[in-house]
């Protein structure tokens, strides 16, 4: 007997955690337990509160974690798992491990800041409010990570082995092919994690990491993400419109402010700006990447050049490290960050957080939003309720640092930068399978997205598809 239990990212897009157990009694008390991903719940309170619940089987009985990639909704609960007693190995690619080395401590630091904030305003029902884990605890869990090469088979127990294949989502991202040998039966399970854009650079331009997840898969059970299950990405190239918006802003003497996540999205945008400058489509104006995490992420990107797209390879070969590109400044300290406010000539300022929920982007927007000569360009998803969503919605003002800031700058948004495959791309990838999986479980999607994708796959491919439910156990017979 073996089963899968969906402990997160079922009915929502965060908290990815899927347990595979070879327990004979369906309750994880014996056998071998593998956790695929260990993400943090984010967003609405109802989900975030689940971060405080222990795993349904004690953490110390989980033998190993297989981590698909370094996004917080896939890795952010690892320090908590370790805090609760997990002592096994965490398998990931070396690029994922390097990224976790900056992302997890930063997450611990934010948890501590949040707890401090709630204690100051005495708004927490927990007295005192505690961090989910601290920076130190996040650093402490890094010792459990073990690098695994893409394509290499790792034997986890006499019954279970796995290998990583490319997911093309972000640097280091992989899908996990898991082979289970129990009762003389072999079953292939494929956990996709997040799947990157399926087509080539003309559809996902500016991608630093190569496009296209591994084709020709063979799985009895497929556990697949469904983030964009009910939305298609625009299929036009964003570069001409982006270049035109930048040129117009510069002509009227304004600057361009870009809220972007420090990892992946910032690098992708910097590469695109460099290309537009070198090809003469936009003027050579100063570019500021204002985030210490973005600098560390660039260093990690440079270390893993095997994952570059042709475009990124060409730019690095020709111009070297983005950290030394002429006219590009990476601000590390807060003094360097504040100095950007003194720049009164047109410039491009890229900073985080990507949804303006915190971070240095706030002071750049507080300064530049009231001036109609400036532009704000969104290149990422803005979750409802965030400051980013308010600004993007065309609101006349937004509250930053407790003050209402009038929005007179031009607001633009590009939806082409997504790192997730959309339904047509997922179908294109699924059509390359060698077989038809017995069951496909859809995870990592809002209910409407998962159910629409389920219907699309059933109609187009005739596959047996189900939307996974939170805490649901499915037997692998
Ligand atoms: Zn992801």
Rg over alpha carbons: 22 Å
The parts where pLDDT drops under 50 for at least 5 residues are none
Main beta sheet strand tally, sense and closure: 7 strands, mixed
Question: Between the first and last Cα atoms, what is the distance in angstroms?
Answer: 7 Å
The count of β-strands is 22
Bound molecules: zinc ion
Give the neighbour order of strands across the main sheet: 6-5-4-3-2-1-22
Fraction in beta strands: 15-25%
Estimate the mean pLDDT confidence.
Answer: 92
Structure described in brief:
It contains 14 helices and 22 strands. It has 477 residues and is an alpha/beta fold. The strands form four sheets. The chain has a seven-stranded mixed β-sheet with strand order 6-5-4-3-2-1-22. Strands 7-8-9-10-11-20-21 form a seven-stranded mixed β-sheet, with helices on one face. It has a six-stranded parallel β-sheet with strand order 14-13-15-12-16-19, sandwiched between helices.
Characterization of this structure:
There is one protein chain. The chain is of the alpha/beta class and 477 residues long. The chain is 29% helix and 21% strand. The strands form 4 sheets. A 7-stranded mixed beta sheet has the order 6-5-4-3-2-1-22. Strands 7-8-9-10-11-20-21 form a 7-stranded mixed beta sheet, covered by helices on one side. Strands 14-13-15-12-16-19 form a 6-stranded parallel beta sheet, with helices on both faces. The longest helix is centred in the first third of the chain and has 28 residues, at 94-121. The chain is globular and about 70 Å long. The protein starts with a strand and ends with a strand. The mean pLDDT is 92. Zinc ion binds next to loops.
């Amino acid at each position: 007997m073996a089963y899968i239990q969906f402990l997160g990212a079922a009915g929502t897009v965060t908290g990815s955690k899927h347990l595979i157990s070879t327990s004979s009694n369906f309750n994880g008390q014996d056998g071998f337990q593998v956790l695929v991903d260990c993400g943090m719940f984010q967003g609405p309170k109802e989900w975030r509160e689940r971060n405080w619940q222990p795993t349904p089987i004690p953490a110390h009985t989980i033998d190993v974690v297989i981590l698909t990639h370094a996004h917080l909704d896939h890795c952010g609960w690892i320090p908590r798992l370790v805090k609760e007693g997990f002592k096994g190995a965490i398998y990931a690619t070396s690029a994922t491990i390097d990224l976790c080395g900056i992302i997890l401590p930063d997450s611990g630091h934010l948890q501590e800041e949040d707890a401090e904030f709630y204690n100051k305003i005495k708004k927490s029902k927990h007295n005192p409010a505690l961090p989910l884990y601290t920076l130190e605890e996040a650093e402490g869990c890094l010792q459990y990570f073990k690098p695994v090469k893409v394509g290499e088979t790792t034997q986890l127990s006499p019954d279970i082995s796995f290998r990583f294949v490319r997911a093309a989502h972000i640097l280091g991202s992989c899908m996990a092919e898991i082979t289970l040998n129990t009762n003389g039966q072999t079953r292939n399970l494929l956990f996709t994690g997040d799947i990157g854009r399926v087509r080539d650079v003309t559809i996902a331009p500016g991608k630093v990491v190569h496009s296209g997840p591994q084709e020709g898969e063979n799985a009895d059970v497929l556990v697949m993400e469904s983030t964009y299950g009910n939305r298609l990405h625009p299929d036009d190239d964003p570069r001409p419109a982006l270049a035109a918006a930048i040129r117009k802003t510069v002509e009227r003497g304004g600057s361009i402010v870009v809220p972007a996540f420090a990892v992946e999205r910032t690098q992708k945008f910097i590469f695109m700006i460099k290309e537009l400058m070198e090809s003469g489509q936009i003027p050579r104006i100063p570019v500021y990447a204002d985030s210490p995490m973005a600098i560390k992420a660039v260093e990690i990107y440079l270390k893993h050049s095997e994952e570059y797209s042709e475009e990124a390879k060409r730019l690095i070969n020709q111009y070297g490290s983005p950290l030394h590109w002429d006219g590009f400044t990476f601000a590390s300290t807060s003094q360097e960050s504040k100095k950007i406010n003194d720049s009164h000539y047109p410039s491009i300022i890229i900073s985080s957080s990507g949804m303006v929920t915190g971070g240095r982007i706030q002071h750049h927007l507080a300064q530049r939003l009231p001036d109609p000569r400036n532009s704000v360009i969104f290149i990422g998803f803005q979750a409802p309720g965030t400051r980013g969503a308010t600004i993007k919605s065309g609101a006349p003002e937004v509250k930053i640092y407790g003050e209402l800031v009038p929005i007179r700058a031009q607001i633009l948004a590009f939806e082409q930068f997504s790192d997730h495959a959309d339904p047509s791309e997922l179908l294109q990838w699924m059509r390359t399978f060698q077989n038809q999986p017995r069951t496909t479980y859809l995870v990592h999607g809002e209910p409407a997205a998962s159910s629409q994708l389920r219907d699309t796959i059933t109609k187009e491919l005739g596959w047996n598809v189900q939307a996974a439910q939170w805490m649901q156990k499915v037997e692998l017979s």
